[in-house]
Fold each of these.
Amino acid sequence: MSMNRDALLALLRASPSPDFGILLDDGEYYIEAESAESGMLLRICEVALLEKNDAECHGGYFLREDGVWILNFCINTGEDLLQNVSAEVYDKESSIISLWEMRHYTAGYRTGRTW
């Protein structure tokens, strides 16, 4: 089931600890806050990748020193070519929601797989 931005925003705001732990999870992808200023989009893998919880990083968000929120993710542009994409957004919630909405288009940083 797909959620619209308002529903995702309400879910984030209802989180008891929005600065640490898993913020969004659909059983395949999840966003985990590492701190109040950063987090990662992870995809659960069937193969151990020598990473925490057998999950591969597909992107992340962080607060830049100038107060701008940045989100990064990798996409597979075809023929095994990967492109790193970055975007600036106005607030933390927008960075998390935008990253979440892009999750199915991202590729793993380690393997380049879109699964």
Note: Residues 92-101 form the longest helix (10 residues).
Amino acid sequence: MKNKQYIIFILLFSFIFISALIKCDDNSIIKPDNYEDFYLEYNVSGGIAGMNNSLEIFNNHDVTYIGYYYRIKNTISQERLYEIFNLLNDNDYFSLDSQYVSQKIMDDIYITVTYRSATISKKVFASACYYSDSNFDWKVKLSNIWNYFEEYVSTLTSDVNSGKVTIYSKSMLEEWPFSEKISLSDNLCKSVGVDEEIYNYLKSFDQQNINVTFFEGDYIYHLNGSGGYGLSFSELDTFYISIHVRNHGIQWIIGTKLSKIPEDGIIITGSDYTWLKNVLKETNYPRYFIDNEVESGETVYEVRLVHGNYFE
């Protein structure tokens, strides 16, 4: 008898426990009060690099994230939409001012959150560096919203397994013929004057409108002229070369050769995508890619990889 009662007690307890779990789960997806389908855009712009990253959430459950290095399209769950709606309400988004910017500051980061539904249209534009001593509360509320969307963007970008490769630059590869006069390896990160022979040699490429990159030994070097970026030329008595960073050539292993990549790029997936993503992450700039060997007359390439699946 006692065993029967014990079994009944266990079954009853299990039923109550499971019911509680189901109830908790149901509560997590209950439609919030006053909820309606909405469109939302979270945009981050400015900064030293002049970024313009935009997360858009559409009322048909589509999501896009577009930035300089990302073009992603995905879907969003109804539960996540409820969560975002609650986030905005909990942080008084609909009661905030439309703008929190004292004055434009160079390289400042600006964040815009735009919301539109059938009954509400709201836009809040703020400087990430602007603080108001008299009313700091808005900053805390907006920061909660910003942090949420940054975490969501991080989730989207961490789940990418494809991308598009385009050629960023290409140039003719030439062996440096003046190592006895000026060794590139001995003058790394230095600026040195050149004689007339070297000056005329370098200028000949410029006059032929040939973009040239030099290698010495196993390394490829990035050279600037005294006139600015690239081998821009001033007069001989004021001309010098700046010998910048160097790297080894990286053998291109993806099926489509660099020389065959069209102007609008190619889509890569799987192991090709993983290989290039890791190379660009692990190898310091500049990354010099080659189809063949490092030798005079070959072409050296720099590439850009945009992560994602949204390239319409």
Note: Residues 175 and 215 are 5 Å apart (CA to CA).
Amino acid sequence: MLLYELDGPDPLLAKIITVSDQLKSLVDKGSAKDWTLDQLLAYFQKYDVSLDKKDLYSMIKKPPLKDVITNIQGDKVIFKGAEEPVAPDQDTNQEVVKSMADKAMK
């Protein structure tokens, strides 16, 4: 984060940028895992940033939260780098179907 980002007419924006940067640090360290939406809202509230669920849904589509949060699925927050891996069964099924299709083409 650059200092000129904090120098703006809106102090709330500066707080959001700062809290988002701190959250990114927690995610990078692995300290922020399996957070619920309520935990995320409480985290922002701890730093005097009052948000509701609707605000968060729109904020994760734009920087700075776009760089930290991938998605919110139900009540679960998915952070960047912590996306759930594809189940091995799905990969295996796709390989079997592809193999069958190749044999049918011959």
Note: DSSP finds five helices and two strands in the chain.
